[in-house]
Amino acid sequence: MARKPKAKNEEIFPDTKLRALAVRWKERLEAGEHDEASRLMTEIIMGSTPMFQRFIQHEGFHRTVAVEKLVSVAQVMVPKWTSKWSPTKGNGSLFSWFTACAKNAFKSEVIRETTFRDRYHVTSDNLEDIWGYDDHEVNKDDAAAKLRADLEQMTCRWASEQERGAIKYLLECIVDSENGCDKTRAIASAAYAWGIDAEAAKFFYGWTLIQMRTLFYAQIHMPFTDQDLFRQEHAYSYLVDLLDIITWDQLKKMIAVMGGMRLKLPTIANLAKMSANYDVWRDIDTSDKDPASVAEVAKKHRKSQKTAQQIYHHMCAMLDSRRSGEHSIY
Would you say 42 and 28 are in contact if contact means Cβ atoms under 8 Å apart? Predict the structure, then answer.
């Protein structure tokens, strides 16, 4: 007698046979015949196992988690998947239903298996270090007090007490005069009081002005720091605005390790979408992961079932901890 040919594409998963078993299992379960239902479920699980094994290898899940562990995960979920399967929904293919459920379950198990990275939380930050600039000395001290101290330390090249006395007198006249120093009267008074020549007193007046201007020049002409030069060089770009967000040292490190690269920063909308997608993923991950559960989650988040399924697959790939953490190279 010739062998009856198998149905098309049922070499790995006997869909026709298992579909009939699933229908009978539902009927026995509703009738309260639990022993018979348990026997039928065992046949369904054993008949589905080869498909699970091949599916795991085809999708590459075995590169992360052992095949045996993933198969056991699917076998445990088969009763739930079967209870939610409807032979009248869609084409009634038990194979399509099981593969959709198993793919979600395997992705979740891969995430759980590989989530081992530590999470770091920054604490005890010194808030005084967040500013992106250094104060110059003129901003840290009282300018008038500093100038007075510099004037008191002023020196000259003449050892004569009369000449040094005249210079000090002229200096006080210039500094302490509220309405401006009377140059002629100051020179004449210095010459008369200190017994020096009028031309010498005039010279000392000019020399005192030069020394004072030198001190003032040092106060207002601050040398450019590297940060000042950076601000001037990139004044017409967004780089200078980064110094309102990160410190100068942090920016220098970024320049040192990533200089020359182009970076595209995400928008607030991107962050909001990422958070919303994570909520969808969590709801699907905590469900039974069958198409009906995915449809419920999609309805909850006002998305189509296809979109919710795509979000789930994308987030599973994104949450794979092999993309982050610190792992030894050698």
Answer: no
Angle at 24 between CA 30 and CA 288, to 5 degrees: 70
60, 145: one domain: no
Q: Are 292 and 284 in contact (CB under 8 A)?
A: no
Element (H, E) at 87: none
Sign of the CA dihedral running 198, 201, 207, 213: negative
- Find, among 73, 91, 71, the residue nearest to 19 by Cα: 91
- Quick check: 190 and 205 in contact, CB under 8 A? yes
Residue 56 near residue 70 (C-beta atoms within 8 A): yes
Q: Phi/psi class of residue 303: alpha, beta or left (left: φ > 0; alpha: ψ in -120 to 50)? A: beta
What's the domain count of the chain?
Answer: 3
More confident residue, 25 or 111: 25
What range does the domain containing 192 cover?
137-220
Total count of residues recorded for the chain:
330
pLDDT tens-digit profile of 254-301?
999 888 888 888 999 999 999 999 999 999 999 998 999 999 999 999
Q: Is residue 131 part of a domain?
A: no
Alpha-carbon span 118 to 106, nearest angstrom: 23
- Asked if 73 and 106 touch (Cβ cutoff 8 Å), the reply is yes
41 is a domain residue: yes
Over residues 184-230, the pLDDT tens digits come to: 888 888 888 888 888 888 888 888 888 888 777 666 655 677 888 88
Amino acid at 13: F
Mean pLDDT of 167-180: 77
Q: Is the dihedral of CA 6, 8, 13, 16 positive or negative?
A: negative
Write b or e for each residue in 87-112: b if 16 or more Cβ atoms lie within 10 A of its Cβ, otherwise e. eeeeeeebbebbbbbbbbbbbbbbbe
Among the listed ranges 42-56, 57-71, 121-135, 154-168, which one has the minimum average pLDDT value?
121-135
Q: Are 243 and 251 in contact (CB under 8 A)?
A: yes
